[in-house]
Amino acid sequence: MGAYIFRRLLLMIPTLLGIMVLNFAVIQFLPGGPIEQKLAELEGMGDAFANISGGSADFEIEATGTAATSAYPGAQGIDPKYIEELEIRYGFDKPPLERFLIMMWDYIRFDFGESWSRKISVVDLVLEKMPVSITLGLWSTLIAYCISIPLGIKKAVRDGTSFDTWTSGMIIVAYAVPGFLFAILLIVLFAGGSYFSIFPLRGLTSSNWEQLSPIGKALDYLWHITLPVLASTISAFATLSLLTKNSFLDEIKKQYVVTARAKGLGERRVLYGHVFRNAMLIVISGFPALFISVFFGGSLIIETLFSLDGLGRMGYEATLNRDYPVVFATLYVFSLMGLLVGIITDITYIFIDPRIDFESRG
User: Fold this and answer.
1) Averaged pLDDT score across all residues of the chain
2) Which parts pass through the membrane (predicted)?
3) Cα–Cα distance, 269 to 147 (Å, whole number)
């Protein structure tokens, strides 16, 4: 097992490098980079040009001819020296290959720099958004497993009955409904939309959260997260239910189950003493991957609907603002964690079923 893990760790290096190279190359061709956005912002600032150029407000007209040859759209009327300062500030005074190598060297040392738009370190920015992602990821995953596993087992035991038919229909509908549409429905029904005003619409806590008792804080927190967690759980719940059912059906038909029943073991003993461990192999081992996918793939629309400032909105805003330190740092960290989760998933397989031996492959 140690040799297998070592090979997987070595394979992570070219995989991560390929992800970063591909995304860095694509970014170079996107219009509207950080310098262009800064120039567009200055274009509407009127007399602010006087402060930039060090001259009068008439500098815009006087310098138009000088800056006309600039490579940046919207640079007319801007002092070329100021554009050079912007290039140095954002690192665009260096060729793309050198910028990429510097960035990767910093990332290897886990130095992610500072956000261009927020003027704080990328690590502090991510930590600031982390509570929302932890809330949605952890609770959504736990609820999905707590509901899906018992439901999937019952569907497998009662396969072909009316219960199985009706629940399958409900699961298919739940899977087909987008999470954001379900979120809107929850808001309309329970958050003061058109019917009931039971749950709050904004944030993770109330304005008086600091003054509440520990129990009051816990209840207030649960009160706020109920609707967004339900909205983000629906698709994972549907997938896990059908996966659990199919896993149990495959195991129930195997010879060792027939033998156990022939020996006179009760149905409950057969189901939970023999079938459960083998059937839950694929379901339980997928827990790390599911949690990471919900944790770091937070729905932008759900976060926006419930005014939750999480990693989803952070990534979207960073992309719009061309905040490359945030974009590439989060891409690097999330890709690294995704690759590590793949290894953790394989290790989980072995813990659940020691018969699995990755070393014997090849």
Assistant:
1) 79
2) 9-30, 132-151, 172-201, 221-244, 279-306, 326-352
3) 22
Q: How far apart are CA 90 and CA 85, in angstroms?
A: 9
Answer yes or no: is pLDDT of 200 > 80: yes
Residue 69's pLDDT band (boundaries 50, 70, 90)?
A: very low
**Going by C-beta distance under 8 Å and a sequence separation of 6 or more, which residues neighbour residue 263?**
none
Calculate ∠ Cα 339-340-343, nearest 5°.
Answer: 100
| CB atoms near residue 285 (< 10 Å) | 20
Distance, CA of 152 to CA of 188 (rounded, Å): 30
d(CA 132, CA 321): 21
Beta bridge partners of 121: 114
pLDDT at 58: 39
Amino acid at 286: G
**Which residues are registered as beta bridge partners of 197?**
191
pLDDT-derived band at 8, boundaries 50, 70, 90:
confident
Cα distance between residue 357 and residue 350, in whole Å: 7
Tell me which residue has tokens 């567009």: 40
DSSP 336: H
Place of tokens 């060792």: 256
Helices and strands (H, E) in the chain, number of each type: 19, 0
The residue type at 294:
V
CB 361 within 8 A of CB 349: no
CB burial string 84-100: b at 16+ within 10 A, e below: eebeeebebeeeeeebb
Phi then psi for residue 195, to 5 deg, are -125, -85
Segment among 63-72, 78-87, 107-116, 127-136 with least mean pLDDT: 63-72
